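Box 3.1 A note on notation
Throughout this textbook, protein chains are presented in two layers. The first layer is the amino acid sequence; the second is a token string describing backbone geometry. Keep the layers aligned when reading.
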Amino acid sequence: MTGCACVSAASSSLSSIGRSRIRRRGPAAGRGALVGTSPASGFAFGRGESMGASVRISVEGQARSRPKREGRALKVVCIDYPRPELENTVNFLEAAQLSASFRSAARPAKPLKVVIAGAGLAGLSTAKYLADAGHQPLLLEARDVLGGKVAAWKDADGDWYETGLHIFFGAYPNVQNLFGELGIEDRLQWKEHSMIFAMPNKPGEFSRFDFPEVLPAPFNGILAILRNNEMLTWPEKIKFAIGLLPAMLGGQAYVEAQDSFTVQEWMRKQGVPDRVTKEVFIAMSKALNFVNPDELSMQVILIALNRFLQEKHGSKMAFLDGNPPERLCMPIVDHIRSLGGEVRLNSRIRRIELNADGTVKSFILNDGDVIGGDAFVFATPVDILKLLLPESWKEIPYFKKLEKLVGVPVINIHIWFDRKLNNTYDHLLFSRSPLLSVYADMSVTCKEYYSPNQSMLELVFAPAEEWISRSDEEIIDATMKELSKLFPDEIAADQSKAKILKYHVVKTPRSVYKTVPDCEPCRPLQKSPIQGFYLAGDYTKQKYLASMEGAILSGKLCAQAIVKDYEPLIARIPKQFAEASIS
């Protein structure tokens, strides 16, 4: 999720484009004061643009006077749980071994200069592991903010707002290894091992799936499902379990073969009642990929269930303790720089310049700079890559298959209220709303965003295809109507109860790739057929699909491919010098 695997799910690609602005209403209302920037280790996070496109970001809101956060003492009272024991799982050990392979690799006689486009998690990961292997990455980011789909900005009050609601699962072995390698494991705030769903037919009430700590997987997950009698009846549980048997027995080969079915089609084929889909898998589908079960590939659900049921702590969730650019991305940048690598912001690529043989000669930036290298990586979202593909590459099957991979729109909303809301948890919550996916009271779940007196709800608005072009006011009005059902005693659509102090609406027209059926064959390997040109991104071939884990793993696999290609890449250098001298 990007927030929940994608919530983060997943998120900034063709998203955060243009200037980030906040609209203020009232007697002194203006058409929008520009959000102030805040420097951090040489980087400023204030407004953002995406590489290679001209789609506008909408980050406007309404605001009442509110004290600035500078100098405010934080008294953190949210209750976190100990970090789970993840180190002995097969997937964690496999990820650790891959990380170690870069550090233990033979030092290159001549380090490769590898130019990487895109400083999201995939690009940062690629650069980090290439630096670990002794090479010299140059990471170029089009915008003035790190993170890609986990980008965030600070507004004039000193409050952060993000591209998505990001959740870190125990089943993310490469993410967990990365935190350990950087020495920042303490920046994850682990929550109790539960999944909490709102009850639409009982406004203000929730239903829980609690995973007992004393049981190993898969028994802790099975018991969590069996003990919940509010969402599914016993006959429905039995039919669902029988329907899942082929996936449990058939392994990965069976899971991949289900890519041709939507979640809804697969459930009906297996004899699972539609109510199971309605009660559980609408929420899961929207959390995993921002779409409904009638569109999502069943492969996505089966992969998630496999990770959650096969690992004791797989479904356990953690929140980052602050904004992602500073708390996650900057430590990666610091690590890259400490090993001789370089990271540049405001470096938008205008064109990929080719040699006579069709290989990459250089990246041409918008400001006219020409960036050459020994190898080149595109770690941007797939939609941006397709915009910048050279014409001579477009009919190559490897690139032509990318046409089916299209980013899904999503909207992330932050609302600051004038009071502390009571009907919430220190956890991620599945709204089960037709308009909202997941949400959290970030004033409770996140240390940096903590407030003792006011709640700040961060919500994922999905599916967003019909809403992405609507005004922020329409989106907030619709959100408030949904929140009045989740908080019937505290929130009213007309604000006669809790009042909105301000809000931010972040629209991402093209987020993670939309995992509809039959996308799997179109996902490319990290090594392209063009010598010296590679791809990284959650849409590339790796087993964690569209997620933060998928992005980081794709970067490691990309770096691995480049390290393996060292000899043929280094052999190209004299030829490139010869061509340069002739021209």
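Residues 139 and 343 are 5 Å apart (CA to CA). The longest strand covers residues 500-508.
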